[in-house]
């Protein structure tokens, strides 16, 4: 079983990877697929905008919240909104190169700062966060028990986490990832959510809301090759996405058919 010390050592390699981004041929192919045709499909059916809008709704009133933007690199979609509106904002990432860029961008925001630090390191001692925003981050932690313990340590009472991560619970995606993994240059810190991961999080925190993305709608990739009008393709793809979005909120079966998962988690109350 991996220890915190083991993961801290792995994260030193992860830091160098993101500081210099050296992908091998197979990782570049996967990234091209993910950022190419999959990204095009997500944009065409409004996945990005819908997910970001939901996160905005989950933020609520930020004016009295201490916010941690976890693994934010040089700034994600909502980093600067959080920095501008939170009572206190801190962005952290392993990459000192990325954090240097973010720090410059945060200069107009007096209540915001960014530091390069490992979330699991004893060097990161700050606590009592009302909100931890983790966009594409939690799946980088190999040990879910260690991550859960650290998240609970950092959260204030009734603190919340907003996450967005890939899953490998859909059998075709799990199969493709299994073929790709031996050649993956960032495999040591890429751990897409399994059913076990999801249930570990659901046991450790209260899931206030959740949505699965690219379940039935992932097959919209192939709809693009059908000899039908663009309007008809859009209607079919949007219908499938809406089914994923709505059913995954209440059905784990529907959720596990999806490629991505976003959640609003709340720290469990401790009966005294």
Question: Would you mind describing this structure in some detail?
Answer:
The protein is of the alpha/beta class. It has helices spanning 4-20, 25-44, 47-59, 79-85, 96-105, 144-154, 171-180, 195-204, 220-223, 230-247, 252-255, and strands at 66-70, 88-93, 112-116, 129-135, 155-166, 205-213, 260-267. Strands 3-2-1-4-5-7-6 form a 7-stranded mixed beta sheet.
List keywords for this structure.
19% strand; alpha/beta; 272 residues; 7 strands; globular
Give a quick precis of the structure.
The chain is α/β, with parallel strands linked by helices and 272 residues long.
Q: What's the SSE blueprint?
A:
Elements: H1 4-20, H2 25-44, H3 47-59, E1 66-70, H4 79-85, E2 88-93, H5 96-105, E3 112-116, E4 129-135, H6 144-154, E5 155-166, H7 171-180, H8 195-204, E6 205-213, H9 220-223, H10 230-247, H11 252-255, E7 260-267
Parallel strand pairs: 1-2, 1-4, 2-3, 4-5
Antiparallel strand pairs: 5-7, 6-7
């Amino acid at each position: 079983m991996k220890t915190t010390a083991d993961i801290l050592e792995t994260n030193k390699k992860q830091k160098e990877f993101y500081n210099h981004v050296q992908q091998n041929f197979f990782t570049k192919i996967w990234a091209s697929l993910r950022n190419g045709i999959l990204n095009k499909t997500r944009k065409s059916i409004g996945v990005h905008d819908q997910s970001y809008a939901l996160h905005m709704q989950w933020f609520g009133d930020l004016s009295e919240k201490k916010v941690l933007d976890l693994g934010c690199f040089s700034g994600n979609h909502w980093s600067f909104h959080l920095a501008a509106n939170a009572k206190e904002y801190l962005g952290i990432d392993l990459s000192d190169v990325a954090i240097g860029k973010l720090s410059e961008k945060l200069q107009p925001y007096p209540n915001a700062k960014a530091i390069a630090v490992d979330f699991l390191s004893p060097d990161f001692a700050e606590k009592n966060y009302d909100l931890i925003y983790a966009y594409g981050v939690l799946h980088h932690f190999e040990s879910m028990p260690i991550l859960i313990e650290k998240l609970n340590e950092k959260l204030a009472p009734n603190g919340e986490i907003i996450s967005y991560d890939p899953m490998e619970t859909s059998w075709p995606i799990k199969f493709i990832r299994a073929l790709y993994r031996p050649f993956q240059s960032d495999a040591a810190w890429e751990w897409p959510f399994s059913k076990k991961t999801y249930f570990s999080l659901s046991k450790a925190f209260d899931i206030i809301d959740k949505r699965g993305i690219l379940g039935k709608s992932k097959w919209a990739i192939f709809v693009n090759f059908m000899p039908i009008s663009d309007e008809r393709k859009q209607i079919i793809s949007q219908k499938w996405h809406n089914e994923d979005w709505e059913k995954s909120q209440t059905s784990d079966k529907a959720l596990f058919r999806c490629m991505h998962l976003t959640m609003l988690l709340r720290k469990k109350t401790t009966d005294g």
